[in-house]
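Hi team,

Below is the intake form for Gfo/Idh/MocA family oxidoreductase from Nibrella saemangeumensis. Please confirm the fields before the structure is written into the shared record.

FORM ID: S-0412
PROTEIN: Gfo/Idh/MocA family oxidoreductase
ORGANISM: Nibrella saemangeumensis
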Amino acid sequence: MKDKHDSRREFLKKVTVGSLAATAVPGLAMAGADTPIGSSNVMPTIIPSKVFGANDRVRVAVLGVNGRGKDHISGFMRHLENKVEVVTLCDADNVVLQERAKEFETKYSKKVKTEQDLRRVFDDKEVDAVSIAMPNHWHALATIWACQAGKDVYVEKPGSHTFMEGRRMIEAAERYDRIVQHGVQLRSSEAMKEAIQHLRNGTIGKVYMARGLVFKWRPDIGNQGNSPVPEGLNWDLWQGPAQAKAFSKNYVHYNWHWFWDYGNGDIGNQGIHETDLCMWGLDVGLPEEISSSGGKFLWNDVKETPEVLTTTYKYPKEGKVIQFEVRPWMTNKEDGVEVGNIFYGDKGYMVINGYADYKIFLGRDRQPGPARNAGGDHYKNFIDAVRAHDKKLLNGPVETAHLASGIAHLGNISYRLGRTLKFDPQKEQFIGDKEANAMLTRKYRAPYVIPDNIAAPISKR
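The structure came back. Fields below:
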């Protein structure tokens, strides 16, 4: 028997798929096509899925290797005995790229191929899957291009940089029959699965509210102004879909998170793990009412995103609510939690600290209830689904990337407009608000353009 969450997931996949239209990848030659994708009226060739035998290696390319990409490399390489292998590293910064390649050779006693341009990776028939750890503004387009090239995808959180991009990712995965995993590791945590089951079974009673907490140490980044592009960095490629601007050390390599062109603030950074768990735990989709406020109160630096953010998402039909808090500096913990979630029911509450630890407290006296600390292997889950070519095996399928990222985007839009917004979850549009709806997408820079629609699936397996 399907549980309620499975039914909701199937429903969400069906709604708002958009009109049917083919899309194109500028400059990307597809297998079996004589003309590069991006030429007029060219239909992408659908590459048949590879069937992996017991002795076949799943060959992975990691895109973006400065930060989270390092974990992606080690995450896949620890499965060498399972015939999984990182064969290519890709980064727009060649200095970082070559450093990582040297580290790879030292650690694993083998060389790895390097590419600065991700389009060359997609052209490489020796690559079966890509793992995307580039800045946020690249996640969706890289995912779509990879799907078109016949690659399966593990994409770091947030799956999308704008709300619309999440829907396009779902369409691309479906259209090109690809396995797409969202990089929220808690989805594979055995403790988190058990915690969700407690919420479904009524251990804390009727669950009506979830809090997402992101209390991270975020210092003053100053104002370093514009400067020449560092040697080895392809600044045009790094900017990709974003509008071109002068280089600044304030962007590269981490603080891009705090600029709207590239990042989404902490609710769209660390917070995606917590937005995902809020929605999973409450068993809800997108909200009907969003109210967000906050600002910069600590530092007189050049960050654009808020330091402090308080967002409320209401679900009037379900009688549920999500509260989300971002704090940047000195702060108290909430029941010991700095980064995590708290769920409230009429019989008790559940505290989730990080990604693999939950505790339940029952009754007015807060008597300790069930608790567990246990992790999981999200990379292995992805590889298992790739080998079987079965997206039903995924713990974090692309639909969850759209939801967890999308709710963060809705909160940011409310903050930036300074008002409460009404939203239609089925149409995926704000109600009677052209200004807000315009912010569901962005202006893209050719040739790094995400199309308005992705064509429907050609066939079902």
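SUMMARY LINE: Residues 1-44, 456-461 have pLDDT under 50 and may be disordered.

Thanks, M.
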